[in-house]
Amino acid sequence: MNISEMVLYNNSDNSSFNSTIDAFKQAIYPVMYLFIFFLGTVGNSLSIYVFFQPSQRKTSVNIYMQNLAVSDLMFVSTLPFRASYYLLGSHWIFGDIACRIMTYALYVNMYCSIYFLTVLSVVRFTAIVYPFKRWKVTNMKYAKITCAMIWVFVLAASSPLFCKQIAGYDKQEKCLDLHPESTDILLMLNSVVLVVGFTLPFCTIIICYVFAIRALLKSRTPQRRRTVSHKKALSTIIITLILFLLCFLPYHVLRTVHLMLGSWSQNNLSVHKALVVTLCLAAMNSCLDPVLYYFAAENFKARIRSLYRR
Asked: Signal peptide position in this chain (predicted)?
């Protein structure tokens, strides 16, 4: 096979890969994004309404959950644009800047969610293991400062996604995929994000879970009283752990494998399809967080029941 034949073969292989994966995305993403948009908009709008009621208890836990709900609602508002892209046959009609904002919003929400969920687990962990100590993380003032720091850090750390070399395309009609020619940059960014944005928070939540269970098993408090006092704390940690295992772990594993293979060909097709599915799971976190609020937020369940009766 001469050089010209090799070039034609590679171009044909890449074209076949692109058409196959585009067809798969066009079948999966619109349905999932619109489903998540509907559930996420209803769930998070209702959650924000409850959190900002004057009668709602003002606690550090509720502050972290308020910020998480705001982040989720901001993200789900971008999903109709994402769905329209795939419904139009992977054709972007909203311009280059809007395209970069879509990619930026996805990752800002993902890592804000990860950090808010991690801090929530730490707060609940301290309530179980050190019930009579007052930590700064459980203080209202420091809760607001912590939330502000998370927003600033994630917004700044995600800023490279505004670069055209990473999130943009030479062709204006293409969008919502990181640039295939930026593999080296993406691998470097992924290595940092994998450690700072996922592994450290995930390990923190696992440690909170293990030590919280250990503290409850060692507690001499009567079973009935212990259940009442620690139910919300344990629910927070368990639900957060499930969200990480279901929504974030598969995506980070598959994204890393996909970037390490670095092949935009049929050899990487199954991995790329799996990555599409795990990205839907990661986005689904935005409509699953209200489940956490219902079972673990202060006075949230009572307010929802009151609204339902009304």
From this structure: none
Give the distance from CA 304 to its chain's centroid.
25
Residues sharing a CB contact under 8 Å with residue 233, sequence separation 6 or more, in sequence order = 124, 125, 127, 128, 212, 296
Q: Is 230 helix (H, G, I), strand (E, B) or coil?
A: helix
195-199, 218-222, 293-297 — which is least confidently predicted? 218-222
| Rounded CA separation 225/233 (Å) | 14
Neighbours of 156 (CB within 10 A): 9
Q: Could you read off the pLDDT of 143-156 as tens digits, one per residue? A: 999 999 999 999 99
Structure tokens at 200: 């450290």
Give residue 63's identity as a one-letter amino acid code.
I
Q: How far apart are CA 241 and CA 201, in angstroms?
A: 11
Per domain, the residue ranges of the chain are 18-309
Say what the pTM is.
0.89
Question: 18-309 domain in CATH 1.20.1250.20?
Answer: no
The two three-digit tokens of residue 183, written as one number: 């593999």
Alpha-carbon distance 96 to 267, whole Å?
A: 30
DSSP H helix total and E strand total for the chain: 12, 0
Q: Cα(105)–Cα(165) distance, rounded to whole angstroms?
A: 17
**What is the greatest pairwise CA distance in the chain?**
80
CB distance 116 to 67 below 8 Å: yes
- Transcribe 185-226 into DSSP letters: HHHHHHHHHIIIIIIHHHHHHHHHHHHHHHHHHH--S-HHHH
- pLDDT grade for 10, boundaries at 50, 70 and 90: very low
**46-55, 62-71, 124-133, 233-242: range with highest mean pLDDT:** 62-71
Residue type, 224: R
